[in-house]
Amino acid sequence: MLEDEKHITAALVVAAGRGARAGGAVAKQYQSLAGIPVLRHVLLAFCHHPAITAVAAVIGAEDQAHYAAAAQGLDLLPPIIGGDSRQQSVLHGLRGLADLGPDRVLIHDGARPFVSGLVIDNVLAGLAGHEGAVAAVPVVDSLKRGADGLITDEVSRDGIWQAQTPQGFTYGAILAAHESAGTGHTDDTSIARTAGMDVKIVAGSPDNGKITTADDLARADAAHAARLFDVRVGQGFDVHRFEPGDQVRLCGVDIPHNARLAGHSDADVALHAVTDAILGAIGDGDIGRHFPPSDGQWADSDSARFVAFAVARLHDLGGRLAHLDLTIICERPKISPHHQVMAARLADIAGLEQSRVSIKATTTERLGFTGRNEGIAAQATATVRLPF
Questions:
Q1: Secondary-structure breakdown of the chain: helix, strand, coil percentages, each rounded to the nearest 5
Q2: Are residues 68 and 35 in the same domain?
Q3: Quick check: pTM over 0.85?
Q4: Any idea what the CATH number is for the domain that residue 271 is in?
Q5: Residues 381 and 273 sit within 8 Å (Cβ to Cβ)
Q6: Which contiguous run of DSSP H or E holds residue 88?
Q7: What is the pLDDT of residues 194-234, one digit of tens each?
Q8: Domain identity same for 239 and 213
């Protein structure tokens, strides 16, 4: 995150609610959307915006473990524990930003995962000449007033807007407004206007909807999948020689053998090739750059963490892993007896259905180092989908 030339701008993501209408074992902001928590989509949008100096989330006290998983690896301020209502949670969050000393703050719902950089830009631009700015879309459907199941009146939609978030404000003014606010406000702009602040309406987006129910989450998941137009393919290749031992590890499965593979980590040649294939598909270097053999912390490390890291890097870009195709090249051990358990383990590590994992084995007809039983080679292809 970069600091704007004129402003310190904080993003406050409000995610302390329970979201009971969405169902599920956890709050809606921690449920999966395209393979990662809804809240992580939101945090990424603000972390990646160049005008945002710092990002903080307001969370429920009981959700700290879920938040830690959703926020893993992101450059964020410590989470702030919320209150009994959204209004109280925002006040806690604003108070929690005091040490940062921002002069602008964008307040955003943790259940609006499709906020775009353009909408954030629009709100920031609205703050250039006003104390507040709100992303909104005009109401286009006919509005009716009703009672007892019958229409009682027509409501003009002229000048009617559907408010979204982020809602941006000068920090000192909105903090003071919240400190003195009574109850019953529908959002932060209501509090701001009651305090006499002027609030500019700027263009939001129909895509910037809020997830409230399980159906909303299902539609959001389908909408995200529909956006993944950029299909990329990455390749990975690795070799490891044999050394004295009694088993080899391939795809996280220990296979009895009269030797083992030599390497700085657990020498899982198959998972190393898979890791490089995923990183290659997103143009993110290779396994040696992220986990150099010169770094002692990776000695004897389980290579499953390397694959999980590469998948997380893909998710951080808003992408999905679509398919893995792995070929293991060796004379011994025989791979076919272990094929199914290896495929199941690789699918589990990569977060894929097993039908999206292909594992094949071949020999080199006793040619080369694999033909002489000196080691094992692996070649992998990863297909990923990214937002275009």
A1: 35, 30, 35
A2: yes
A3: no
A4: 3.30.1330.50
A5: no
A6: helix 86-96
A7: 999 999 999 999 999 999 999 989 888 887 777 777 899 99
A8: no
